[in-house]
Amino acid sequence: MEVNLENMLFLDRRSFALEISSLFPLRSSCALINTNMSAVPDGKKLVRSPSGLRMVPENGAFTSPFSLDEPQWVPDKECPRCMQCDIKFDFITRKHHCRRCGRCFCDKCCSQKVALPRMCFVDPVRQCAECSLISQKEVEFYDKQLKVLTAGGTFLVSVDSSEKSETMVCRLSNNHRYLFLDGESHFEVELSRISSMQVLTEGSTPGGGSLRVSGMVLQYKPPGSLNLQQLHMDIADDKRVASAWLAAMHKAAKLLYESRDQ
Question: In the 3-class helix/strand/coil scheme, how is 113-182 assigned residue by residue?
């Protein structure tokens, strides 16, 4: 389903939400659980691929949802010319494969070596001009936004329509697969079970002034249930940290949405 990321939905309290639906494919696992997945070993191993060395999880079940699979390289016999400038390959003009898209290019069109954390490469790898621009933006996300998400923010959390809320610290797990919520109780939400996310804001309507991020609403599918349930998170004490966390979460959701077809 196509989703317009700029589509604003007006809600009560003169606030509105940016909704991103169907972000994550549903998998056969729990949505909201209170077992402690942080206690499960999360080791990594070094593997060699045709594109370079990669540091990947020992257990494939703990692969980050932000990760991308390595592409299949276009066979040499199927690319006699550069797929960018159309120069013919020969003994002098060698062909190179972009490690992100797998297409064939000449050295001039595929000369940049850029970090590619979404494929877990240890070192920067050769990429075409188009892919290198995308990867550079993602490096900023890994260097900044993911650190904010794993550090966490403090929110008032309620489940479904319950009037009872609890002050909890919400953070992204180190393997990026779970949201951990810790307060008097402990909950874990697996990202692959989230069906939609709304970042809530307060203030005037669009065009009428500044807006303030106020919270987030997640919809998830509990185990054994056909109905979606709702997790409501309002910013608590440290508004600056919590607002930064919500902004980072929004960028994470947008990155996952945009990468579905990659």
Answer: EECCHHHCECCCEEECHHHHHHHHHHHHHHHHHHHHHHHCEEEEEEECCCCCCEEEEEEECCCCCEEEEE
